[in-house]
Amino acid sequence: MTSATSLFAPVETDLSILADNLKQLVGAGHPILSAAAEHLFGAGGKRLRPAIVLLASRATLGDRDLTPRHRRLAEIAEMIHTASLVHDDVIDEAELRRNVPTVNSIFGNRIAVLAGDFLFAQSSWYLANLENLEVVKLLSEVIRDFAEGEIRQGLNRFDTSLSIEAYLEKSYYKTASLIANSAKSAAILSETSNEIAEHLYSFGRHFGLAFQIVDDILDFTASTEVLGKPAGSDLIGGNLTAPVLYAMEENPYLEAPIEREFSQAGDIEQALTIIRESRGIERSRDLAAHHARLAMEELQYLKPCEATQALAALTDYQLGRAF
Questions:
Q1: In the chain, count of helices (H) and strands (E)?
Q2: Residue 217: which residues within 8 A CB-CB, separation 6 or more?
Q3: CA neighbours within 13 Å on the CB side: how many for 171?
Q4: Which residues face 190 on adjacent strands?
Q5: Regions of the chain with pLDDT less than 50
Q6: I need a surface site. Which of 11, 50, 65, 231 has the fewest CB within 10 A?
Q7: Over the stretch 31-76, which tens digit does the pLDDT of each residue have?
Q8: Residue 107 and residue 96: Cα distance in Å, rounded?
């Protein structure tokens, strides 16, 4: 099967430069933060978000080359994403991410929280130095959205009355906002038309929603080794995702073990069986495919080029993970 990183060919060199820059941008002068940064940015990951920024940049620049501001935008996007993961892992008390020990499991919660805060602060500093007020506003909104999404997720733990609409809204805040706003920002830095910038925003929004739905499907269908974290961990933590919400519509009996927060023996196993035997996963695949199609439609407004083709192939690939 094609790998995600093989689809990054038009920006492969750019991503290599980005990886080198990230450790220098984050770790300089702070021994503990330097160690945390080395761990974070050396832990692999697909670099999906900066790749989309770089592809959107190249798709809108035409024959012009990437500017330092485009490169810095991609670095900022990855720093913001990584900061959110560090905070997520503290909240979830996660010990593994991408099959690598989390910052909190190595350095403790205090350092992990400070490392996440530092990454947000650093990204804000570099963002301000882009000296483009519209881009500053867009990426500042992303940081606010992360907090909003995390608060909503925390308040809705084990809430069986959660709607699909509320789930998608939370998914936008936690995942799609960064992809949508950073893709739009790339177009703004390319000085393209407002229409093209908005099409890239919509592409990122629908791509991000499809990506999150697929991730939520994999929580029930993939192994711990593939996920890089324990399978079923979202459900166990009370985070009710599309497969769970659809399964509850079909079989309301699922509500009982969730509402008692899996406090009785066999509750988790019973819930997982109900979900896997329902049409919840199938309906979630349909929902992801719907948003992937909407994302692809937005790309037709971009000039055909290698970077645009890569964005389309990446959309297909991400959806394919669910099947």
A1: 17, 2
A2: 242, 243, 281, 284, 285, 288, 322
A3: 27
A4: none
A5: 1
A6: 65
A7: 776 666 666 766 556 789 999 999 999 999 999 999 999 999 999 9
A8: 13
